[in-house]
Amino acid sequence: MKLPNYYEDPNTLHVGTCENRSYYIPYGQDLNSHATLLSGDWRFGYYPYPEAVPADFINPDFDDSSMDTIPVPSCWQCHGYDYHQYTNVNYPIPFDPPYVPKENASGAYRTTFTLSAEAAKQRNFLYFEGVDSCFYVWVNGKFVGYSQVSHSSSEFEISSFVNEGTNTLAVLVLKWCDGTYLEDQDKLRMSGIFRDVLLLTRPKSFVRDYTVRTFLKDGGAGVVRVSVEADGEISPVLTLCDADKNPVGEAVLADGVYEFTVLNAKLWTAETPYLYTLTISTADEVITQAVGIREVYIKDGVVYVNGQNLKFRGTNRHDSDPVTGYTISKEQAIRDLTLMKQFNFNAIRTSHYPNAPWFTELCDRYGFYVIAESDIEMHGYLSTYHSDRENTLGLLDEGGVFTEAVLDRVQRNVIRDKNHPSVLIWSLGNEAGFGYAYQNAGRWTKEYDPTRLTHYESSTWDHSNRFDKSMLDLYSRMYATTEEVDSYFAEEGPKKPFIQCEFVHAMGNGPGDIEDYYQQIMKYDGFCGGFVWEWCDHAVNQGIAENGKTMYGYGGDFGEYPHDGNFCMDGLVYPDRTPHTGVYEWKNVVRPVRARLVDAHKVTLALKNMLDFTDMADAITLSYECKADGELLCSGEIAVPSTAPHTESEVTIPVTLPKTAADCYLKLTYLTKTAHELVPAGHEVGFDQFLLSGSAVRRLNTVTDEATAPTVTEGDRFLTVSGEEFTYQYDTFTGIFSSLERGGETISMDYSIFRAPTDNDRNIREEWERANYHHSQTRTYTTEYAIDGQTVQITSTVNLCAVTVQSIMKFTVIWTIDGAGTITCKIDAKRNTDMPYLPRFGVELTLPKSWQQVSYLGYGPQECYIDKHHLAWFDAFESTVEDMHEDYIKPQENGNHYHCRKASVGNGTNGVTAYAATSFDFSVSNYSDYELAVKKHNYELEESDFVTMHLDYKNSGVGSNSCGPQLLPQYQMNDKEFEWEYQLKF
Ligand code: IPT
């Protein structure tokens, strides 16, 4: 069919649409909804381009019986049409704004609805909540209008198009339009009517729109101001009721604005999401609106909500599901919100577009602060040939092509969601540079709604400060390093509050920098918090593999070009919302209570209430446990003293410490005291742990009293060390035991510096590969041995090296073997600091496959690293090799345990136990590091026929360098010189 070419015309954004309004559902005075949901199975035809669509599909008499059906709402790629594509920055189409490919996939939709004689005489509207990317609408064969902006609502009045009885609605959706250039968000690219479609039947005159604003007065009163905009003649009656449905105050009308004064107002916060109900009643309709009384403002560079300076502990959230794509039900959204609450989030950025129109309603109800973001992202121009951040943007923005479109998108976001207390901040969009269009849209936003804060990260891209940014309230950055944060605050002079709209990139194994950033957030009043990138992994559920695992597809799995591989899987939860270990790390870092050990002898602690509005005693119950090397000494509950937000109080725990060298740890666990709609009472919100006593260095006993020294036989290369029950082969070329044989089972050992790169290793990995760390080897310069009383001692000087490159590390290793076969290893090393930091340094043991039982004394039970261990605590744990594996969809290094004193792997009869003089990192796996490094999907992993055990002097941290800064030096295996001692008992 031939269409008016609105879809390549940036001056024609909408045709026949109603003016923007806030999202609400009107009801009749009989309380019947005036909205009918048209969603359901619609007729559907998929065509390669609009010209191929039969022109008469819009007509009521078109025979659609041979068309397919598709559910509305849905994305057509999720129903077998077209193909999936994942790209982050790169535009999936040639860069030729405002033009899009001629082959522009087109979805023709048809459905019918019926109207009673009464309804047909009323005013009727179609309300589309979201269509990607643009669409044309016909009712009963007549053209009604056109719209775009995928994640915003489009409303059409169809009163003059409808009749009593059956009416035919036809919609043609195009995959691309000029708006595609503004919707270059980092996501799987999908199309179709992906949100609900409503039919609204309304009286001749009605409330077209209304705006609610709230203010606080000294003395605890809240003011609710409502302005009402009518279509036709109405005499609205406004009432405001509290949560118990009791009216509070009378509406006073002055200058066209209704004002309620609520004495002793209960204020809305994310912790206390108290809602009043506003009712706007006209002769034929009732509209209700939840109202939260609250105020947000900035004073001296600090963000305040209701007079309290608070922090956003946030995450970026997309509407995304591995089965339903962009189509998200309330149940799915509530599942996300439930997890977010349970994992201590208080804020959400709707990256990078408005979420479903009822989403902020849920945030009002459950208590989340929202950065509501406009549907804009244009960073694809950065991938054009010869682009640069500041100037290429001119093509899209300064040149004026999209000036109108940017304003339109910002207005659609602001006006739709303006009545929600949860929305504290308007975001103009994401990564689209800063030019006239943004200056313009920013000014409009601040003028339209001075009661909220404004945000737009890309304003910082205008380095030469050519544009006015005074309308932006926050200084927003993404992935700023801790150093950059420090220097921002070190600068003299007044400054805007600092916010990280994206940080701690949660891709794969990580993030490892949450605590470091949180320390800064706590340190600087002007640092109002951050939003983790991002909430969930995006992937496509491609069915179940033979081994029972779900086959999640990511970029490149659909044969598409271009694509960005697994960069879409950078969430805190797996696509099915199973939490990643990283979200446990987040949860405990931002725990609502932080304890400080004041006196280790008296066991006195200061508890700081990290909540912003709730007394600690009202929110938290506290239990404690004291253990010596994992053995319980005592446990109990402690009454939580009344503690105002942001203040401390002291408690003393009744612990009597034993006189032992064992590590005595005290663990405090914080539980919710009362139930929240999404969080039961007794839910663990975090813990603290303190070492009360113990000795940092443990003596490793090398001699068993009765045993006699082993014997040594020299071969041309190997030293054979034998005792009554064992035969060990020491390789004098490599400086380590090539085999350890006892009881009919053999294990082998090697030095190890390699790990299966994590997603966060993606940059340093190139250095590691250049340094040939994945081909490292050892050679000895000298080896000597001696029999000394009851032990054999072998000493080697060793070069750790790799082909082509210079020495990586040199060390002296002393092995002591006693009559029972216990091996003690002492290493004294110097690393070549010309070489990059190491993934790890330690030994790798190859164990019999039947050794599947694991126990360890160290940090667990979840995987943990030097920079990601706040989710874990020190204890004695038992597990299995299988359970120690964290099954990342894109396999990588996983399952480490930080700061272990001891670790055993065995089968109940035989096994090995490692002891540390100080500590080691420990992991064990049924997969080899090589397997984890090369396989692209978890369902392709094949177990090896042995068990791989790692004992490391140090395994480098994980950080968040997949998009965030480099791993901080203190978490790198970068030691210049070090000593390490451990022992193996069999
Ligand atoms: C930045 C984007 O805002 C976000 O959408 C996502 O792509 C994220 O980071 C990376 O996962 S883009 C990046 C080039 C800074």
From TrEMBL:
InterPro entries the UniProt entry points to: B-gal_small/dom_5, Bact_Beta-galactosidase, Beta-gal/glucu_dom_sf, Gal_mutarotase_sf_dom, Galactose-bd-like_sf, GH, GH-type_carb-bd, Glyco_hydro_2
GO biological process, one term: lactose catabolic process
Enzyme class: hydrolase
Catalytic activity reported: Hydrolysis of terminal non-reducing beta-D-galactose residues in beta-D-galactosides
Family annotation (PANTHER family): BETA-GALACTOSIDASE
Protein name: Beta-galactosidase
This protein's record includes keyword Hydrolase: yes
Keywords recorded for this protein, A-Z: Glycosidase, Hydrolase
GO molecular function annotation: beta-galactosidase activity; carbohydrate binding
Family of this protein: Belongs to the glycosyl hydrolase 2 family.
Entry GO CC: beta-galactosidase complex
